[in-house]
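Troubleshooting log. The previous structure file for this entry was overwritten by mistake, so regenerating from the original sequence record. Sequence copied from the archived sheet and checked twice against the printout by T.R.
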Amino acid sequence: MDFQTYFPIWPSLTPAQQARLLAGLSERSAKKGAVLHSGGDCTGLLLIKSGQLRACILSDEGREITIYRLFDRDICLFSASCMIRSIQFDVTIEAEKDTELWVIPSEVYRRIMEESAPLANYTNELMAGRFSEVMWLVEQIMWKSMDRRIAAFLLEEAAIEGEARLHVTHETIARHLGTHREVVTRMLRYFQSEGMVRLSRGLVELTDEAALRALGNG
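Regenerated output below.
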């Protein structure tokens, strides 16, 4: 399938705007673990064809926390931070799986957005959705204990992967949640003692999803 099929606002653009967008477009492949955008760089907007990306922010001490994830057909705006003046924090975009994507140059997108009300409205909706995810994360950090956050993360991973056997390390979980590996290890061992998970090297198997869901929603 081509870009026109993946870009939802395509039919609302004029033929001239469509031509300019296609002329500036580039395709890119990213292997798992590759960093596609870092800090204040203006990489451009990323539209995922297939794969999975992770957007995170880094503390001064080097700790990470995931602010949202991107899947097929999702668009990343924060990788075009130079286009969005209100962004006051640096975002890193990393491939969680091998990913195929399109890169839309920030300047091309910005100029078309200035001409096109449908594209401007679509962009504002995307931005509002992303900031809602960031605010949800802030609420989780402020009001939810770490055991509940880890339980919710494990359930989210199981839903994404479509299975209860998760090939994920304690360090990876800690990076997603902005905490220390030792904290995650302690909580997972507690979960195991309660029969909610089974642990082995590089693997967390969910054995009682109902109990995890009750904890995560508590």
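The mean pLDDT is 90. Archived copy saved in two places this time.
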